[in-house]
Amino acid sequence: MNKYLDINPEVAQAVAQGKPVVALESTIISHGMPYPQNVETALRVEQIIRDNGAVPATIAILGGRLKAGLTKEEIEYLGKKGQDVIKASRRDLAALVAKGEDGATTVTTTMMIAHMAGIPIFATGGIGGVHRGAETTMDVSADLEELAQTGVTVVCAGAKAILDLKLTLEYLETHGVPVLGYQTEELPAFYTRTSGLQVDYRVDTPEELAKIMKVQRDLGLKSGILVTNPIPQEYSMDADRINAVIDQAIQEANEKGIHGKETTPFLLAKVKEITGGDSLDANIQLVFNNARLAARTAAAYCKL
Ligand code: PSU
Ligand code: MN
Q1: CA–CA separation, 231 vs 6, rounded Å?
Q2: What is the tens place of the pLDDT at every residue in 279-297?
Q3: Residue 165 and residue 1: Cα distance in Å, rounded?
Q4: CA distance 85 to 75
Q5: 278 or 182, which is more confident?
Q6: Catalytic: which of 67, 87, 160, 261?
Q7: What is the rounded distance in angstroms from the CA atom of residue 213 to the CA atom of residue 181?
Q8: Separation of alpha carbons 87 and 184, rounded Å
Q9: Ligand 1 proximity of 125 Cβ (cutoff 6 Å)
Q10: Cα(156)–Cα(40) distance, rounded to whole angstroms?
Q11: In the beta sheet, which residues pair with residue 68?
């Protein structure tokens, strides 16, 4: 085992016994939602995973230790610190560990630490991708690169239209990452169930997903799998409304010269601010939905 990694005893036992475990990220707690909804959501997500037959492992970096599985107190600590915690991507890992600092893990670093801990599946809200205007800014999320090289299945609700979804799919295709639609042929766009773009394959049951994960591993393919699970109909937002909000948020980011790792948190916060909290409710519900699917898939995977 990696000497910088601490696996929580319950998680370690489940992994050793071949029982289902689902990893969860912590940037969604620190940077993705305000306190106290972030902590309430994180704890509720863990409970949903348990209710669906798996052990939750929320991932973060605390005092320079890579943590797979957090206590309630640790989740509360990260949630309260919010944006003061460093948003940790692949390039941050060595420095944060060496300095003994805290870091909230993005999709990228959650995949890395889940993989080190032997956890094959991870549930989140949305992934990073190719930003609009990337042809001049070169802003492509490290999440896509990680999906290309780390064999963890990521269950998400697609990606927000703060990104160029078409280019994001092109990138994933180039890097050999399968994009699966859960009970849909269309790529969901986080707040909405549709985007006008096609996924690679439609999958209708957790068992089918688990089988693809197994064959991917058996074939020795090193890349991850992206499962896109549309937001439940009753919580989905009006596409025209949310897209107008996103356009406004992007315009503000450009005017303020926001760039680098600040871009995504800035856009997420702006969207929340402009919609007056409606988007936060949608965000919370889609994370619950993804946690359910990931737990059921993890359970089916363990039976194969
Ligand atoms: N998209 C969301 N919510 C989030 C994130 C993205 O809808 O919370 C977070 C995730 O942690 C993701 C990260 O891995 O932002 C991507 O950041 P960037 O675009 O800087 O790579
Ligand atoms: Mn970026």
Answers
A1: 33
A2: 999 999 999 999 999 999 9
A3: 37
A4: 12
A5: 182
A6: 160
A7: 14
A8: 32
A9: yes
A10: 19
A11: 7, 59
Say if residue 36 is preceded by a cis peptide, omega within 30 of 0: yes
Looking at residue 1, what is its pLDDT? 67
To test ligand 1's pocket by mutation, which of 106, 112, 190, 280 has the most ligand atoms within 8 angstroms of CB?
106
Positions of E strands within 140-249 = 153-156, 179-182, 201-203, 225-228
Q: Cα(68)–Cα(88) distance, rounded to whole angstroms?
A: 15
Q: Please, what is the end-to-end C-alpha distance for the chain in angstroms?
A: 25
* Token digits of residue 302: 């363990």
The minimum-distance atom of ligand 1 relative to the CA of 261 is: 20
Hey, which residues does 55 pair with through a beta bridge? 21
Question: Within 10 A of 123 (CB to CB), how many other CB atoms are there?
Answer: 31
Q: What is the DSSP letter of 88?
A: E
The two tokens of residue 80 are 């309260």
* Conformation bin of residue 19: beta by default, left when phi > 0, alpha when psi is -120 to 50: beta
Assess whether pLDDT exceeds 70 at residue 134.
yes
* Alpha carbons 198 and 60: distance in angstroms, whole number: 33
Average pLDDT, the chain: 97
Active site residue 252: no
Task: Please give the structure tokens belonging to residue 218.
Answer: 């058996």
Ligand 1 in reach of 168 Cβ (< 6 A): no
